[in-house]
Amino acid sequence: MMVRFIALLLVLAMSEAQAAQWRLVKDEAGIQVYLQQIPGSSFQAFRGVTRIRVDMPRLLALQDDVSAACAWIHACSEQKLLKHEGELSWAYSRFHTPWPVQPRDSILQVTTTRDADGSVSRALHGVADYLPLQQGFVRVSKVEGFWSLTPREDEIEVVYQVHSEPGGSVPAWLANSFVVDAPFNTLQGLRQLAEQP
């Protein structure tokens, strides 16, 4: 009994320590952006949180239209669906970068899970070697993250969290601005589109 109690205390302490690592860096227009240092990485993870007045089918449809989603994803210049199998899909994306940084591309495997309470999660996993390298682009070497969509009365709480290794050389100022701008602008773009009459 005592061992179980100590184990529970350890789990709670670890959860609190992990939660404490997230720092709120932006709270504007109903969108909160948090950052977290990742051990062994020069690049921070981001988490964006907001609420959107929309029903789940419309929100999922906006995300499932991979090519059109590029219009609301931060810095996205092109995106296409490569493959779809049940709850799994693979998408290829290209991203704008300011001069003189070379443009990036990435390939994501997305796993969609639907829960009994109506919430939907999409796990994001980078598969950098899914396609050969493309001329003129640096492949994002690692991506791990998720979308979490949870119904809350007449709104959906949306959480967008990602940690990536952009590959190649990226100036600190660009990396630091990207981890704030990416979740904020992406969630703002998605919300504006979803809440259109």
Automatic annotation (TrEMBL):
Signal peptide (from-to): 1-19
Domain START: start-end pairs: 1-197
Gene3D superfamilies linked to this entry: 3.30.530.20
Any one cellular-component term (Gene Ontology): cytoplasm
Keywords recorded for this protein, A-Z: Signal
One Gene Ontology term of the molecular function aspect: lipid binding
PANTHER family per the UniProt record, alphabetical: PHOSPHATIDYLCHOLINE TRANSFER PROTEIN, START DOMAIN-CONTAINING PROTEIN
Entry protein name: START domain-containing protein
Lineage of the species this protein comes from: Bacteria, Pseudomonadati, Pseudomonadota, Gammaproteobacteria, Pseudomonadales
